[in-house]
């Protein structure tokens, strides 16, 4: 047993402390697979954890980071052997189970997904939980019956991680994408991802009417609160909104009007405890339905020593697209 680099969060008298330090391998939690972590990423939830802005972490000490990609080192699980390339998202990593901002991770083999052909460990974390959540949202809309000829689809927080991947995937599938952003300076970036229209988030920030003019057949929302309420009020008859985030808050100041007068559906998207078969489907669809050149264009790389500062930036809305974290 030795030590390895990790971003460690400890309980403090007031809040938490966070530092890049050496972590003792003997302190790793139970699991039947040990992975040499090669890449991680930065999600909104990671920003909350490393800054202590919300009580994301529920045990101490904690290694931050909610997803990783790497190579299996040791396994007693029948499905995995040394050398396998794997990705892991959610399952409480960085919250209740030691997470991904580390050179090693020990997890349950049932949590892992084999990397699809054509996706490297770096690509997997360029996608990360944000992109995987975007794909889960697309799958939910498709299951509802949404098709490109159903009408326009709206994506909120479009310049962020979830929104960037959602915009790229939906446009590649043939949808007319309306991208909503609070950073209109990113309009060219969003059009480059495939957005047909770019609107200012202020159009969705005022108090929501029970019903407003019908504007889209569906959408993917990572913002929540008043924005989600406005989306619902503007959704066409029989449409659906996939809700996967709460950047603006957990409240929903809406009414039942969209649901009972227009038959609108609100589809809840959970990436953390999502069943394994749905995860596999999402990752396989990402391999085929996400333009890898666009993925490269929206991604930039940082080292493990830059994660804490970047966590504050993502909460401040200063991060565009996706960040990959090089672990070794």
Secondary structure layout:
Blueprint: E1 3-11, E2 16-24, E3 33-41, H1 44-51, E4 62-63, E5 67-75, E6 85-89, E7 104-107, E8 113-114, H2 121-144, E9 153-155, H3 161-172, E10 177-181, H4 187-193, E11 197-200, E12 216-221, H5 225-233, E13 235-243, H6 257-261, E14 265-268, H7 276-289, H8 292-297, E15 299-303, H9 307-315, E16 322-326
Parallel strand pairs: 9-10, 9-12, 10-11, 12-13, 13-14, 15-16
Antiparallel strand pairs: 1-2, 1-4, 3-5, 3-7, 3-16, 5-6, 6-8
Helix pairs in contact: 1-9, 2-3, 2-7
Note the main attributes of this structure.
single chain, 328 residues, Quinone Oxidoreductase, Chain A, domain 1, 2 domains, seven-stranded mixed sheet, 9 helices, 16 strands, 29% helix, 27% strand, globular
Explain what you see.
This protein is an alpha/beta fold and 328 residues long. It is built from nine helices and 16 strands. It folds into two domains: 3-115 and 298-326, Medium-chain alcohol dehydrogenases, catalytic domain (Quinone Oxidoreductase, Chain A, domain 1, Alpha-Beta Complex); 130-268, Rossmann fold, CATH 3.40.50. Strand 9, helix 3 (161-172) and strand 10 form a beta-alpha-beta unit. The model has no long low-confidence stretch (mean pLDDT 96).
Low-confidence stretches: none
Average residue-wise pLDDT: 96
CATH class identity of the largest domain: Alpha Beta
Per CATH, the superfamily of the largest domain is Medium-chain alcohol dehydrogenases, catalytic domain
Q: What number of structural domains do the residues give? A: 2
The helix content, as a percent range, equals 25-40%
Instruction: List the helices and strands in order.
Output: EEEHEEEEEHEHEHEEHEHEHHEHE
Q: Characterize the biggest β-sheet.
A: 7 strands, mixed
Multimeric status of the protein: single chain
Based on the structure given, which CATH architecture of the largest domain is correct?
Alpha-Beta Complex
The total count of helices amounts to 9
Structural shape: globular
**Terminus-to-terminus distance:** 19 Å
Radius of gyration: 20 Å
- Class from helix and strand fractions: alpha/beta
Instruction: Classify the beta-strand content into a percent band.
Output: 25-35%
The count of DSSP E runs of length 2 or more, i.e. the number of strands, is: 16
Find the CATH topology of the largest domain.
Answer: Quinone Oxidoreductase, Chain A, domain 1
């Amino acid at each position: 047993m030795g030590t390895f680099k990790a971003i460690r969060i400890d309980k403090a008298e007031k809040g938490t402390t966070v530092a890049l330090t050496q972590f003792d391998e003997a302190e790793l939690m139970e699991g039947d697979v040990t992975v040499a972590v090669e890449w991680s990423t930065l999600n909104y939830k990671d920003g909350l954890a490393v800054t202590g802005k919300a009580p994301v972490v529920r045990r101490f000490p904690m290694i931050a980071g909610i997803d990783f990609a790497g190579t299996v080192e040791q396994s007693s699980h029948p499905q995995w052997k040394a050398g396998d390339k794997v990705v892991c998202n959610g399952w409480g990593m960085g919250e209740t189970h030691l997470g991904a901002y580390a050179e090693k991770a020990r997890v349950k083999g049932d949590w892992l997904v084999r990397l699809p052909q054509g996706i490297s460990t770096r690509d997997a974390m360029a996608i990360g939980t944000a992109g995987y959540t975007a794909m889960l949202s697309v799958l939910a809309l498709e299951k509802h019956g949404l098709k490109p000829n159903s009408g326009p689809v709206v994506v909120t927080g479009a310049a962020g991680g979830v929104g960037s991947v959602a915009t790229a995937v939906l446009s590649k599938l043939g949808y007319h994408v309306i991208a909503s952003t609070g950073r209109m300076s990113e309009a060219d970036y969003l059009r480059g991802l495939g957005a047909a229209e770019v609107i200012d988030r202020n159009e969705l920030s005022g108090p929501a009417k029970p019903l407003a003019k019908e504007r889209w057949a569906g959408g993917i929302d990572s913002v929540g609160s008043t924005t989600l309420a406005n989306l619902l009020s503007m959704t066409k008859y029989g449409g659906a909104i996939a809700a996967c985030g709460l950047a603006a808050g957990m409240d929903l100041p809406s009414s039942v009007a969209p649901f009972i007068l227009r038959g609108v559906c609100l589809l809840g998207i959970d990436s953390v405890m999502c069943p394994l078969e749905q995860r596999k489907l999402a990752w396989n669809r990402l391999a085929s339905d996400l333009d890898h050149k666009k993925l490269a264009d929206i991604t930039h790389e940082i080292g493990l020593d830059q994660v804490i500062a970047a966590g504050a930036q993502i909460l401040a809305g200063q991060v565009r697209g996706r960040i990959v974290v090089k672990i070794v």
